[in-house]
Amino acid sequence: MLITLHWLSRRSLRFLHALGGAVGWLAYAFSASYRQCLRDNTSLAGLDAAQRRAAVAEAGRLALELPRLWLRPPGAPIADPVRWEGEALIDSLIAAGRGFVLLTPHMGSFEVAAQAYAERFGARQPMTVLYRPARQRWLREIEERARTRPCLNTAPANLSGVRLMLRALKRGETIGMLPDQVPPQGQGVWASFFGRPAYTMTLAARLLQQTGAGVAVLYVERLARGAGYVVRVMPLAETPPEGAADEAAALAINRSMEAVIRMKPTQYLWGYHRYKAPRGSAEP
Prior knowledge:
Elements: H1 2-9, H2 13-30, H3 32-44, H4 49-70, E1 82-85, H5 88-95, E2 100-103, H6 110-121, E3 127-131, H7 137-147, E4 152-156, H8 159-170, E5 174-177, E6 188-193, E7 196-201, H9 203-211, E8 214-222, E9 229-234, H10 246-261
Parallel strand pairs: 1-9, 2-5, 2-8, 3-4, 3-5
Antiparallel strand pairs: 6-7, 8-9
């Protein structure tokens, strides 16, 4: 497997995206559970048949571009063109002299997001990202090496990771997280996401309320035919009300993620089990 990943890491992005489209359809054809999950989630969000087909291929492209991103030498820049839109918002958040939170849904090339930030802004304000380690040891080791870059630190999705992120914010640094990631039991609440209750993390809203940090949304659009990426930065569509209960704050975050996803719905990871109940919990 490692030999294959290293071979893929040396291929062009255009080649990987072409191959990835086919891989996406293979996964769709051979996994009934994945196929059903993707169909159910796209139906909830109102995607038509053409958009669903495009989302199948985009999921494969996401998977195949990872070796090229992860296995490049430490300190080497992202190998493909990265264009920014809305980066003035990050400039203003850094100029404010306090920490801030970047929220990135499972959309587009979300693995590029933190590395692109670190390359452009990390020297001015380092970043710590929350992640869930892979179960397989070999993949976990690759992820840890790939995600730890200059001016970019990682924090596991557990209590120690939460403490790391809180300390980073208090130092006036940046933190990043996937707010549509299903948290463990006791670390979330049920809130509507595209019209269906989804177990939603409370961490993002609590960090904002406890620290007074700034916040922005960042997602990375994958351009066609291996042309690179566009990093888009924007304010939250709906800011959690000050002092709001966890449920209201989580709903505001979910609505903001829905607004971003609707901008490029074919690049959202619809096969992700967003509506699963965490272990020890039951759906409402």
